[in-house]
Amino acid sequence: MSHLGMALRRLCALSVALLWGCLASTSHRKAVAPPQDLQITDPGLLGSLDVEWKPPPNVQTVSDCTVRYKFEYRNTGDRDWKVIFTRKLKFRVGFDLSRTAEVKVQTLLEGQCTNDMEVQSDWIYATFQVPLQGKLESEVQNFHCIYHDWEYLKCTWQPGLLAPRGVHYGLYYWYEGLDRAAQCDDYIQDHGINIGCMLQNLSQAEYKDLSICVNGSAAATLLRPLYVTLRLHNLAKPSPPKHLVVSMSASEELHVAWSPPGGETPPQCLEYEVQLTEDARGTKAAWASVSTQMETALTISRANQSRISCVRVRGRTNIFCADQGFWSEWTQECFSGMEPKVTSISYTASTQPVCDQALIAATGICGGPALEGGACFSYTLNLVRHSHSYSFASPVRLAGKPQNINASALAPFPAAQGQL
Ligand SMILES: *[C@@H]1O[C@H](CO)[C@@H](O)[C@H](O)[C@H]1NC(C)=O
Ligand SMILES: *[C@@H]1O[C@H](CO)[C@@H](O)[C@H](O)[C@H]1NC(C)=O
Ligand SMILES: *[C@@H]1O[C@H](CO)[C@@H](O)[C@H](O)[C@H]1NC(C)=O
Ligand SMILES: *[C@@H]1O[C@H](CO)[C@@H](O)[C@H](O)[C@H]1NC(C)=O
């Protein structure tokens, strides 16, 4: 190296401005080369592709700088690139395999060698497309999936428009954790043609990308495969809420309570919609939505007690667990507010013991053998018509466990209130 060169180097080290001049004069804008050998390979996982590259040449000689990469990828037709900053040289990322996969990567150099300024290389690009066999019209149509009760996934489709006779469709799936793509083993058939699939035991696939391919074969014709990527939690449909109980208080309020549906649906992942109709018997009900909430109970004031009323409730996944979901079917209870037909009586002990000596004295049955530990309990009297339950606003208070209550003594309703 010449003396002039060494002197110039020292000068460059002295000031930012001179360093920039130095870089500009020696490499003219680009101080670092792009990565090399960018490659995309398909591991056969129905959506995930492996992307790898090699470092730029001579990058090992840069000891006082860090080398990173800016890796971007998308499907052709997407507006935005997904961006990853990394020091790794290999990534597995998800694509829609029915479209071309595009990737690009550039080198980022930063540290003393660049005076702590980030220097970017040019981009290198690569694309990938699975062989698109068959005509587009031969692809299956109306592909839908629902994740029932977080227990099983049911997917259905219709044969493609150009599906030949004797076509055989297959559904394959993969999610992170499976060694390789697996085939459906429980098909739904119509006239011997597979038109759907049931997949069980997918809890390991929740909150991940689930890649699905529906392809087909027919004697001499090539069929276009369908590729989709699902997220199970956004496809969940719970069963209808259970144990809907509507009770009415003397203050003309309706108390509505229900239980979360069964199955594997996480109860904390649900929200409910409650609707009410106060329609005359026989005409088409006009439902009014009264609440959408996460709680499993609600109090509604009634506009008109004299009419037949129905309450219905349905559930779906709330925003804390998913971006979207399907509503369950409704659970419905109808009742006549004025004339509940009493067919049985049941009692519910309240959780808090109540001692009301005046009342106990009045009833004269405190201290019987059923009294437990001297405590007095409050009972809510429920008049049960079929599965419908009506309870009084003021509980009838008894000491101990009520026994031998005569149903006919309660008629006419609601005069029985407080009579016992
Ligand atoms: C459910 O899937 C797991 C892997 O995710 C597997 O180990 C287990 O055997 C499966 N259970 C059934 C009943 O298929
Ligand atoms: C359908 O896709 C699976 C999984 O990629 C593959 O193993 C199978 O050979 C394909 N079948 C047809 C008919 O293309
Ligand atoms: C309640 O119903 C009766 C007859 O069924 C009707 O005459 C009355 O207007 C209703 N009241 C309200 C507030 O809807
Ligand atoms: C209930 O009371 C009615 C009259 O109040 C009586 O005729 C009937 O025998 C009673 N039934 C029972 C089970 O005690």
Automatic annotation (TrEMBL):
One of its GO terms (cellular component) is external side of plasma membrane. Pfam families: IL6Ra-bind. Gene3D superfamilies: Immunoglobulins. Coiled coil: none annotated. PROSITE patterns: FN3 (PS50853). It is found in: Membrane. It is a single-pass type I membrane protein. InterPro entries: FN3_dom, FN3_sf, Ig-like_fold, TypeI_recpt_CBD. GO terms for molecular function: cytokine receptor activity. Residues 237-341 form the Fibronectin type-III domain. Keywords: Glycoprotein, Membrane, Receptor, Signal, Transmembrane, Transmembrane helix. Transmembrane segments: none annotated. Residues 1-24 form the signal peptide. PANTHER family: CYTOKINE RECEPTOR, INTERLEUKIN 13 RECEPTOR SUBUNIT ALPHA 2. This is Interleukin 13 receptor subunit alpha 2.
